[in-house]
Amino acid sequence: MDLSIEAGEFLAVLGPSGCGKSTLLRMIARLSVTNGGRIVTEPEQFQTAFVFQDAHLLPWRTVLDNAALPLELMGAGREERYTKARAMLAQVGLAEAETRYPAQLSGGMRMRVSLARALVTEPRLLLMDEPFAALDEITRFHLEVQLRDLWQRRGMTVIFVTHSISEAAFLANRAVVMTRRRGGIKLDRRIDLPAQRTNDLRSDARLGHEMRLLMGAMEEE
Amino acid sequence: MMHRRSFLSVCAATLVACSKAAKIRLALNWKPDPQFGGFYAAPYDKHGLDVEILPGGAGTPTVQMIGARSTEFGIVSADELVVARSGGNDVVALFAVFQNCPQGIMAHASRHLASISDVLKEGTLAIQRGLPYARILEKKYGFDHVKVVPSPGGDISAFLRDEKFAQQCFVMSEPLQARHAGVDVKVFPVSDIGYNPYTTVLATSAAQLKSDPDRAKTMVAAVREGWRAYLNEPAPTNTKMHDLNPSMDSAAFAEVAEAQKPFIETGELGSMTAERWTTLIGQLAELGDIPQAMPAQDCFRNL
Amino acid sequence: MKKLLPPLIPFVVITLALEWMVRSGFLPRYLVPAPSAVLRALVDSRDELAAAMVKTSAAALIGFALSTLTGVAIAVILSSSRAIQRSFYPYAVFFQTVPIIAIAPLLVIWFGYGMKTVIASAFIVSIFPVIANTLTGLLSTDPALRDLFQLYGASATVTLVKLRFPAALPQILTGLRVASGLAVIGAIVGEFIGGQGLGSVVDVARTQQRVDKVFAAVLLASVLGLALFGLINLISALTLRRWHASEATME
Asked: What is the ipTM for the molecules in this complex?
């Protein structure tokens, strides 16, 4: 595959199971090695963050310590990382929960902590691998709105892998559908929807139109 | 005393009644070695007995096995038989191999000790503390100056390594091993302190004796013949036992078989006297191992 | 009290049943002691048994502490590389399979008659579950979390200390639960050979055909095992309380 991503894009990656969506993400994150291909970035090094399908929090740490983890691993001092973590938790609406433990949180809250953790380093690239797949629909809707909001405010690049056509259409300004085998791209489309997206958009015909296009590309095989 | 049948004996008796020419088990309280020679040499078939000999080892509870009916005959020592009887286990002695107790304490000859009490003045003594003679020694001389450790059960490696190490032994067994290993030993027989129970005694339960007295008589006859044969010609039986117990080599078998003779051949093979039993019972009562004395006649039968 | 009642009832029933069976002659008293006889033995020999219990407890505790520290250390080393694991893990299994009765006399040669042999015995018998469970715990770290640590450039040591080890704690505690009981068994076996403590009481009483005293000593050994087990459970509850499914509750 040959894929070019601009800075500041919100790219959704769709495709059937086993097409390599997650692998692509891991390669971009330099967690997996490519074989016979290259990932080129401009600039070479920058802060990347990864959000997984499950929150994957450290259960023996408080919400605050979890959110602050990336800064801790990078060597930041206590005061600095706690300040930044608190700020991030406030942004995702969890300021009250900072002394709680993951076992005491709901699924949606845990995902929000995971999000805060990802953003605490102010990454320029945010990679997300079906992060909301395990959540109920209402929570999903709220988190999607919150995510788009964060993206717009921070100006980072987001690559969002998902199975959900409606999620892809709602969140992204560009969507790519991968082929079943050999990691090719079937469709590469600019999503034609307004920049400000609220939950009202969900019942809008324009969203349905985009979804039909994406669905068509998915179903062809 | 009304002997109420125990649950276990009801089961066992039923089983015995069901099987015809029932297999007779003889449980040993140690591995096959010359002390059991006569039992392995005995012509059971000739007397119409189907006997299975069950070798034992450290801690084989033969006297309890007889009581629990898991064996018809067993090898016990006279003192443990008396204690068992006082606890309600009605076992009876039939044939005493060792007329004189071959237990003793061995020490390095280089220590030039004069008597058994000298052994207790320093160093280490490996002894089974629960044995009556151990407690008689403790009562008489005290263990204040000697370090008492568990008996290594036939293994003399600790003894060889440490000059101040003394251990309990069978007078004709471990000392010979030590001499072969180059250490000269002085042996103090337990009988020196006046404690001389019959040892390696064939026993059975009183119930068995009552229900089948002929079988017990035949068993004793066969065993007596076996011992006569073994004392005359130990070699073939030694070979048989060595195959079962390779931990002792053939030369040692021969040597021990010879050395044990004086303890066995004192008169009629295996027979016992009430006087000896009475003395033993008195000693055990004094030690506190049994709550009160019992009639010597209850403990044994000369068949 | 609610927790104590369910296990207490079968205990009372069985004890009463045993008492009746021995008194009525159903079970011979030289094979199975009546519970009342065991109780009497406990009271009559209380000084001897108390001293013995102190010795056995000390040896079991020290042996257990040593096997915990050593076992965890060995598991950490084994978990660091596949090559090391493949080369050395089979030797760890040796600790599981070696019959302690067989090597106890060897222990006496190396450590002499006394406390050191008993501790060594407790150590050898109890170390394997610590190694096995700790290793499993360390190797089954959530791969996503490992990725996360890698993403932020954490070194192997940092990953071990801040991620793999805390994550392995529930598994480690499981191993300790098993090892605690084994340490008591190991101590008793060591005492058969090395001579002191409850093991020695059992050995001497057995020679004297004092089944009541044997059972009394065995009972105390079980109490010791239970106490150690309870201690581990307490530690587990305190450390895992806030975060593990096995201990936590949703607020």
From this structure: 0.86
8 Å CB contact between A161 and A129: yes
Question: Could you state, in order of their start, the residue ranges of all structural domains in chain A?
Answer: 1-46+124-221, 58-121
pTM of the model: 0.85
Q: What residue spans of chain C are helical by DSSP H?
A: 5-23, 35-44, 46-79, 82-97, 100-111, 115-139, 143-151, 156-159, 165-194, 197-207, 211-240
C244–A73 C-beta distance less than 8 A: no
Chain C neighbors of A29, CB-CB under 8 A: 147, 151
Tokens 């044997």, residue located: C214
For C81, other C-beta atoms within 10 Å of its C-beta total 10
> How far is it, in rounded angstroms, from Cα A110 to Cα A56?
8
CATH architecture assignment, domain A1-46+124-221: 3-Layer(aba) Sandwich (3.40)
Interface test with B, best of C32, C109, C113, C215 (most B CBs within 10 A): C113
* Per-residue pLDDT tens digits for C105-151: 889 989 989 899 999 999 999 999 999 999 999 999 999 999 999 99
Indicate yes or no: CB of C27 within 8 angstroms of CB of B89: no
Touching, C vs A (3+ Cβ pairs under 8 A): yes
Q: What is the rounded CA–CA span in Å between residue C175 and residue C130?
A: 5
Domains of chain B by range and CATH?
7-100+197-298 (3.40.190.10), 103-193 (3.40.190.10)
Residues from chain A contacting residue C148 (CB–CB below 8 Å): 50, 52, 56, 69-70
